[in-house]
Amino acid sequence: MNLKFSERVKIAYKKLKASVYFDKTQLPLRDQLVTYEREEIESQLNTLVEKITGSESDWSAFVDEILSAVSAFVFPKALEPIPENMVILNSSSVPIRLEKPQFFIDLPVNGHILGILWVLSVGRMLDKNCEDDTDGMYEHSYGNRLKKKLINSESGDITYSPYLFEPYFSQYESWRDRGLERAKERLNDKQDAVILTLDLKSFYYSVDLRATDFSGFMSLFENAEPWIMRVNEFVYRVLCRYSDIVRPVVNDTEFSIENRTILPIGFFPSNILSNWVLTTFDNVIIEQWNPVYYGRYVDDIIIVDKVEKSSGLYKKAREKTEKSPLTADDVIDMFLRNGTTPILKIFSEETDECGKKAITYEVNPKLFSSQNCHICVQNSKVKVFYFQSGATRALLHCFQTQIARNVSEFRMMPDMDRVLLSKDYSEIFNLKNSDSINKLRSVDGISINKFALSKFLGKYRKVCELINDKKEENAFEKDLMVILDECTLIENYGTWERILEILVVNDRIKLLEQCSLRILSAIKRYEVPDTKVHTEGIHIKAGLLCVFRAALCRVSALTWGVGIDNVIHNTHEALLKCAEELDCTPEILKLFEPIRMQRDRLDYCSFRMVNKYVLPLSIDCMLNQLTTDDHPNIRLCELSEDLKILDLEWDKSDYRYYPYMFTPQEISFALLCGGICSGTICDPMKQEEILKHIYLHCNYPNVKEDEDHILYELEEIHVSPIQVFDKTHHTIYVGKRDGSDYKDKLCVAIGNAELKLNNFRAALDRRPNRSYQRYRNLSKILDAAIEQKVDLLVLPENYLPMEWLPTVSRFCANNQIGLITGIEHVLFEGEDPFVYNLTAVILPYEHHEQKFAHVFYHSKTKFSPEERRQIEGHHCTCQEGSDYQLFCWHGIWFPVYCCFELASIQDRALFRSYADMVVAVEWNTDIPYFSSIMESMCRDLHCYCIQANSSGPGDSRILQPTKSELQDVIKTKGGKNPCILAADIDISALREFQMLDYSLQKDMGAFKPTPPDFNLKVLEMKRNRTLFEWIMETYD
Q1: Is residue 470 classed exposed, middle or buried when 0-12, 13-18 and 19+ CB atoms within 10 A define those classes?
Q2: What is the DSSP code (8-state) at residue 165?
Q3: How far apart are CA 461 and CA 480, in angstroms?
Q4: Ranges of H-type helices in 839-979
Q5: What residues does 834 pair with on adjacent strands?
Q6: pLDDT at res. 393
Q7: Do residues 860 and 994 make contact, with C-beta atoms less than 8 angstroms apart?
């Protein structure tokens, strides 16, 4: 390990900040981090280093200070249901009363940093898989696992990446999908299969950690450094302090923690410890049962096994009697209550009025280091699915189909048709019925599905940041305010930030104030019975108030002006009027003061804690103007307004604690915007230089330039000049230099999309079309590209609004789909307004397991006469580019042209022998002329040619250099609905053919013979993967 301890502390702070940034349950802590960073962050962290490494007395006093400030927030995990004899109303008038509490730790920031240091040292040792360490964790334990690349394999040190744990969704997918696949394999082998799912009840409250556990952790180190021992002891003391606070507060027997030392929710070491506690449990299941699959996601369990024909389960499953049907208890008895060490024991048995037994199982305490652990199985979540060989697999197929649908929904562009076009909100409601859904009398009630509501709001937020469709949005937001009554707001307090964010993004400031006041009113009505939580000594509403404050502060940082100032002022006034009913402490009242809110809103921007996913442009670009005394009236989620205050020297910032990766595609877009505002878009070499510098500086600020930077720099992007016809152009190489990502074939799709003259004119008239219909057309095309597993999608000239580029670039990176598309004419306002015609070339790649995209913006070098006439008729100047680019991606070489550029014989022949394909984005109506150009270019350059034009005039096509009747791989015209047409182009086959001499080419006949002067030396270097090196050596 070469890291200085001071650097280790800074990395820990960055990883803490990133973990909180992406955690929707840690809003109060996020507020605390903003305050912490304001107080001279470097000085704060240096002081922390001194305390950890200082004298025993200083360290002890420091720990006592932190522990004395520990407290707990109480949140509603569930509310009391509507009484059975109550009238079912379509608006809430029932009391808002807690049924089930959820406790979160409230710990000073320094305590959390110490917790992350524990995770990075002790936690990392505990998290090792059993395949790497005999005492390690079970390999199919998926939840709360550290990033596999937490340690740099070359340097042996902790990476500077902000990320700490593996992402929730991918881990959950692996846990669930492996189980279903194993069940399917058993059925394919003509065996019966059983799937058992269990959930451990109130798991974090049921464990018991002892001091001996933590002292035992030190044996994992050959020679533990003093700071590790101190941090290890500190973590245990936090657990003890938290348990002492929660123990007297809990009145509900379900949460009774007796004399146990439990795990605090919201404390990051708990993530590691929750898995460690169950290590023996995992091992015994494997050793005694050894099922075909056992997977655990924290406290959720899936077990899959085959059922032998000699088994009692097999026989019972086939008995045709209702007296003794196969039950979950039978499966548990056979597999989990037998053996040398029973895994589950019966904790209690109850018999209902009908004589039906309900058994509660407890995990055998002998499987834990402390016999005081009391971990029960949640009866309501015990499920057994028995699949008989040869019988229908409908249920299994249904599971997998629904899962595939859910997974694809996360990959695709959000679809809001049902809501915005049909006003159908049924996806977020659960209708409770006791009989046929067609009978009104069978309706027992209606409730909001929490997960569906959260997903729904997330989809809508992504859409609303792209569109400006007043009619559709106004109707939706009015409906939203009806749906979100006070009871629903409390039950779904985790969605408050997203709701407020939607209203800010859509500039609905009056509705924002109305919603804020409704949240306060809901908190005022919220009740916590003494039978559930002993309320003396704890502020039961403090947690909800802190969540609301953090949400309002962060989203209001997205907009500046009198309107939002009034919302903050009026919210504070409303809070003052009902402070006593809200159980509001003086400290919380201060948090809502307008002056404090103003300062913290700026700090959310300065410390990069605003939601970057609703900003079209990085907050770095606007900070200089925002932090002046005279704050501008501006909405940061509007690109046109961001450009007005863009700082052309934004890249000179020395900020180092980004809570996220500042991605290459985001940097490229910021450079583009800066270039547009300055009137000079940087050339590819300058872009590469600045991009790599910013990427390293912002994401890995502590890396030594002379030593370790090679471990982190973007080695997948390289640019070199190339001299053609005595003029300098550029070669842009994207991908692995060793050729490991090369492809022989490429699945290419052309978008059949209609361009409208009205949109072109509206953009020049400063009233661009950003309707939902336009968004729908784009999303259908992008989603089709995913479904058809397209590698590269080509769309027409002028197709994509510039504001949508960040979202589309992220889409391409996440799905690893290349995109070449024209950008709607970009108008820059100034004394002499000018217009760019840009083509975005978005080429994705993977860098250290992260999905990025290199985005280059080709500026059109030759405007057509009609295009120029229209632009100058709007009193603007055409801003022309000066060069062309030759791209290499997946080992395939191609230039990109924009429409009228192809009219130049010299320009379209620039990369003869280099190009495997030529891509052209167009908006032309002279079909015969451009068709002739493409057909001759296909033969003359002997390459594939891809042309995307507006669907009206048509002639979008993919051509190959073959005889005329086979030349069109795809050709299309017209069509009302946006769609794509995809085909594979075989680059390897084309190159192999080109290597033959004329006679053998004639014999083979797969393509037309190569033209005279075709450069075989260049072709050979492409095949040997040395062409780019040769270009650099020759022209750089």
Answers
A1: exposed
A2: B
A3: 13
A4: 865-873, 905-908, 927-940
A5: 828, 877
A6: 72
A7: no
DSSP SS3 for 588 = helix
Q: Tokens for 867? A: 């295009």
* The two three-digit tokens of residue 671, written as one number: 């450079």
Instruction: Measure the CA–CA gap between 854 and 844, rounded to whole angstroms.
Output: 6
Length of the chain equals: 1036
**Of the candidate ranges 481-485, 572-576, 749-753, the one whose mean pLDDT is the lowest:** 481-485
Q: Is the pLDDT of residue 373 over 70?
A: yes
Are residues 560 and 598 in contact, defined by beta-carbon separation less than 8 angstroms?
no
Query: Is the Cβ–Cβ distance between 377 and 200 less than 8 Å?
Result: yes
The single-letter DSSP state of residue 540 is T
Query: Could you tell me the two tokens for 988?
Result: 């390897």
Q: Is 725 exposed, middle or buried (0-12, 13-18, 19+ CB in 10 A)?
A: exposed
Can you read off the two tokens belonging to residue 669? Answer: 């877009």
| Both structure tokens of 88 | 């079912």
Q: Is 879 helix (H, G, I), strand (E, B) or coil?
A: strand
Rounded to 5 degrees, φ, ψ at 146 are -70, 155
Number of H helices, E strands in the chain: 39, 30
Question: Is pLDDT above 60 for 85?
Answer: no
Backbone region of residue 307 per phi and psi (left: phi > 0; alpha: psi in -120 to 50; beta: other values):
beta
Amino acid at residue number 340: T
CB under 8 Å to 611, separation ≥6 — which residues?
501, 554, 555, 558
Question: What is the Cα 517 distance to its own chain's centre?
Answer: 31
Distance CA 551, CA 503 (A): 12
Interatomic CA distance for residues 465 and 468, integer angstroms: 8
Instruction: Calculate the CA 336 to chain-centre distance.
Output: 38
In one letter, which amino acid is 419? Answer: V
Span 164-197, pLDDT tens digits: 998 877 777 777 788 888 888 888 888 888 889 8
What is the Cα–Cα distance from 82 to 105, expressed in whole angstroms? 30
How, if at all, do strands 892-898 and 885-889 pair? antiparallel
Q: Distance between CA atoms of 790 and 982, rounded to whole angstroms?
A: 7
CB 778 within 8 A of CB 754: no
CA distances from 120 to 13, 157, 363, 758 (A): 11, 10, 30, 57
Greater confidence (820 vs 413) lies with: 820
Structure-token pair, residue 62: 């420091």
Q: Which residue has the tokens 């033959």?
A: 996
Q: 31 is written with which tokens? A: 């507020």
Contact 403, 227 (CB under 8 A): no
What would the two tokens of residue 906 be? Answer: 């010299």
Whether the Cβ atoms of residue 130 and residue 137 lie closer than 8 Å to each other = yes
Rg over alpha carbons for the chain, rounded to the nearest Å, is 31
Distance, in Å, from the CA atom of 539 to the CA atom of 550, rounded to the nearest integer, reads 17
Percent of the chain clearing pLDDT 90 (strictly above): 68
- Nearest CA to 672 out of 837, 857, 843, 852 is that of 857
Percentages of the chain per state (helix, strand, coil), in multiples of 5: 45, 20, 35
CB 276 within 8 A of CB 203: no
List pLDDT tens digits, range 419-442: 888 777 878 877 555 554 444 444
- Structure-block tokens of residue 907: 């320009």
Three-class secondary structure of residue 212 per DSSP: helix
Q: Are 942 and 1006 in contact (CB under 8 A)?
A: no
Q: How far apart are CA 900 and CA 636, in angstroms?
A: 36
CA distances for 194 relative to 199, 327, 369, angstroms: 17, 12, 31
Among 486, 487, 485, 484, residue whose Cα is nearest residue 498: 484
CB 555 within 8 A of CB 500: yes
pLDDT band at 354 (very low <50, low <70, confident <90, very high): low
Residue 893 has pLDDT above 90, yes or no: yes
Residue-averaged pLDDT of the chain: 90
The DSSP code for 377 is B
For residues 331 and 337, what is the distance between their CA atoms, to the nearest angstrom?
A: 9
